[in-house]
Amino acid sequence: MPIDKPNADKLFSEPMKQIDQFTFNKSVVDVFPDMIKRSVPGYTTIIGMIGDLAERFTQPNTRCYDLGCSLGAATLAMRRRIGVDGCEIVAIDNSQAMIDQCSKLIARDHGATHVDVNCQDVLDVHISNASIVVLNFTLQFIAQEHRHTILKNIYRGLNPGGVLIMSEKVAFEDQSHHELMIDLYHSFKKVNGYSDLEISQKREALENVLIPETLTQHRQRLKACGFADADVWFQCFNFASIIAQKPL
């Protein structure tokens, strides 16, 4: 199958008189593969490992959820590695533009596992009979007062031994370390071709939209929801991924 060359992300390359809040609209969808590759350190590794974890933890006759699926990268990674029978992947995103393109990409894939793609708010999703739930850079876009509710819903819907894979942009309690990680991250973006203007304007667009929390806050919330085992399995600068397992 030929691989389409992604459109270059130039959304913030020109000076803007007014910078609107960042939304996952059609313009973002059109450049999203390039944007995510150049903006999230370790993204390809995380996606690949989600496939590995799906192979390890998916139970027969259960569901795998990709909440905030965007274009379905995690969904496809799971689909290509699930090796047990009777499974279904449920891919959810609240952006219709994302879901429209995700559906096309899923249709072009020939994996055996059925995928159900829906445009829906993750707060409204009923999780049930789940062996894996993925929140891949999703929780950070949800209001903080709703984050416990979402994680509690996930915990209730997971089968014993099921896992949550949650990737997030994180903050740090020590201010000097926090500033160092941000500086290193901005250097990473510059190496990937983003200008100071692009970095500055996108950061302003994401202000009050993407709200990072510390790893301590994430661990405490996950344990409060019932996860006995929750810790980081991947981190690069201020981006990290946590795996949390429901007790058997």
From TrEMBL:
The gene is cmoA. It holds the Pfam family Methyltransf_25. Homodimer. One of its GO terms (biological process) is tRNA wobble uridine modification. PANTHER family: CARBOXY-S-ADENOSYL-L-METHIONINE SYNTHASE, TRANS-ACONITATE 2-METHYLTRANSFERASE-RELATED. This is Carboxy-S-adenosyl-L-methionine synthase. CDD domains: AdoMet_MTases. One of its GO terms (molecular function) is S-adenosyl-L-methionine binding. It catalyses: prephenate + S-adenosyl-L-methionine = carboxy-S-adenosyl-L-methionine + 3-phenylpyruvate + H2O. Catalyzes the conversion of S-adenosyl-L-methionine (SAM) to carboxy-S-adenosyl-L-methionine (Cx-SAM). Keywords: S-adenosyl-L-methionine, Transferase. Belongs to the class I-like SAM-binding methyltransferase superfamily. Cx-SAM synthase family. It comes from Halioxenophilus aromaticivorans. Residues 66-162 form the Methyltransferase domain. S-adenosyl-L-methionine binds at residues 43, 68-70, 93-94, 121-122, 136, 203. Its EC number is 2.1.3.-.
